[in-house]
Amino acid sequence: MNKSLSAGLCLLLLFPLGAMADGPFDGTWKIDMSKLQMPKKPDVLVLKDGTYACKTCVPPVSIKADGEDHAVTGHPYLDTMAVAVVDAHTVRETDKKGGKVVATTTTTVAADGKSAHFEFSDSSNSQGAPVTGSGELKQVAAGPAGSHAISGSWVTANIASLSDNGTEITFKQEGGALTMTTPTGQSYTAKLDGTEAPYKGDPGISSVTVKQTGKASMVETDKRDGKVVGVVTSVISADGKSMNVVFDDKLRNRTMSFVAIKQ
């Protein structure tokens, strides 16, 4: 699985959800992985003639697949990427920032080429232990003739496992402001009137606004250097025990949804 699917997945799951003035969002919430709906728009990968390309990465990536570190630009979570061809069905990716390994992903394509299993460890968005997980990909279009089995258009069929530090968020509302913290070190304190505030601990987000849209609903907008990178819409259930959340990835034009359960 490429960086946009691994770190990018962790990034999507850690986006904050918000809170209303009466505090229905207060507490720790955990994503119900059985109700996670991944984006339907595929990622396009091509590994051919010794070159690996992620066509749908933002910005796109094209490097030699020789197992060596190669510089990539425009990606806040990494500055080099190495892609090693393990065998005809397996590829291992190693991402670094400032010379330090921040993510590893191993992807193995099934014999029929229609599905793939991935396992990853990602600390690019964590100040503590890395987020780890595994899952399955489904091929929706084949790659070009003569390319490696990983080539083609892929969607994430499921996330079989994800460490708790990638699925938990804690909120505290007080004095008209919301404080958000995560086990991986992200945090902010923002007024609930849509006033922009600093977002800490995430290389890809510099500021955030949280705006109440109903008694138990909100819209959060996340920005990087003034540009909107994501919008999260969340609605709390009538019994106050769960939240329905929709995340709109503005950079990659993808949407995902999940349900968070109050702990």
Description:
This protein has 263 residues and is mainly beta. It has two domains: 15-37 and 167-262, Calycin beta-barrel core domain (Lipocalin, Beta Barrel), CATH 2.40.128; 43-164, no CATH class. The chain has one helix at 3-14; strands at residues 27-31, 43-48, 51-54, 61-64, 70-71, 80-85, 90-97, 100-109, 115-122, 131-142, 152-162, 168-174, 177-181, 187-191, 197-198, 207-214, 217-224, 227-236, 242-249, 254-262. A ten-stranded antiparallel sheet has the order 14-13-12-1-20-19-18-17-16-15, with helices on one face. Strands 4-3-2-11-10-9-8-7-6-5 form a ten-stranded antiparallel sheet, with helices on one face. A hairpin with a 5-residue loop joins strand 18 (227-236) and strand 19. Residues 1-8 and 11-22 have low confidence and may be disordered. Residues 1-21 form the signal peptide. Keywords: Signal.
Features:
mainly beta; Lipocalin; signal; ten-stranded antiparallel β-sheet; disordered N terminus; 263 residues
Radius of gyration: 19 Å
Number of helices: 1
Overall residue-averaged pLDDT value: 91
User: Which spans have pLDDT < 50 for at least 5 consecutive residues?
Assistant: 1-8, 11-22
Query: In sequence order, what are the helices and strands, one letter per element?
Result: HEEEEEEEEEEEEEEEEEEEE
Protein structure class: mainly beta
Report, as a whole number of angstroms, the end-to-end distance.
Answer: 31 Å
For the record, the count of structural domains works out to 2
Tally of DSSP β-strands: 20
Strand order of the largest sheet: 14-13-12-1-20-19-18-17-16-15
Strand content: over 45%
> Helicity range of the residues?
under 10%
Biggest sheet statistics: 10 strands, antiparallel
Keywords: Signal
Signal peptide: 1-21
